Amino acid sequence: MPPEARSREFLALSAALTLTALGLYATSLTLIPLLTGRGFSPALAATTFGLLGAGQLLGRVVYGPLSAHTSPTGRTVALIGASALALGVLAVLTGPPAALVAAAVALGAVRGACTLLQATAVADRWGTAHYGTLSGLFAAPITAATALAPWAGTALAEAVGSYAAAAAVLAALVLTAVGLAWSARGNG
User: Fold this and answer.
1) What is the pTM of this model?
2) pLDDT tens per residue, range 43-88
3) Cis-peptide into 96, omega within 30 deg
4) How many domains does the chain fold into?
5) Among residues 139, 146, 140, which one has the least CA distance to residue 111?
6) Which domain, by its residues, includes 136?
7) Phi and psi (nearest 5°) for 128?
8) Residue by residue, what is the 3-state secondary structure of 124-186?
9) Which CATH number does the domain housing residue 122 bear?
10) Cβ(153)–Cβ(166) under 8 Å?
């Protein structure tokens, strides 16, 4: 195993993006019940979910210029912070419907940008030597969190009483990831 994979920076960054992925995917994949709980018809909630997907494309388009003008740590902290903000807005915003749709699109945008952030994190900080091994080790917990997210979002909503309350808990969790990302700044 390359020594970078055991470094505090590597582990902190992987943990930060794992928590972020859990929050983003658990909330976005339970968006329809969150919105129907806020009075949206199932059709409008499903349409909004589709617009979240369009937001992902927007986030991926914006990532290139963001990457060109920020450091790896700067964009990581900014995108994780934006993720926490988007989750928090969805947790507390009750209307109007257009504002909730905009919040869902924003959630999709940060989710799309975070996909590219994850894909470039290892090479941006540790170069391409041992890239396959490092990238696999880095992505493994993120992938596991993403796979568990639909179940985790639903289980959390049942435990705390609503999908909105679950989004609030996940926003707080992702907010802690900002600190982890900042602590990983040794290589970026």
Assistant:
1) 0.94
2) 999 999 999 999 999 999 999 999 999 999 999 999 999 999 999 9
3) yes
4) 1
5) 146
6) 3-187
7) -105, -5
8) HHHCCCCHHHHHHHHHHHHHHHHHHHHHHHHHHHHHHCCHHHHHHHHHHHHHHHHHHHHHCHH
9) 1.20.1250.20
10) yes
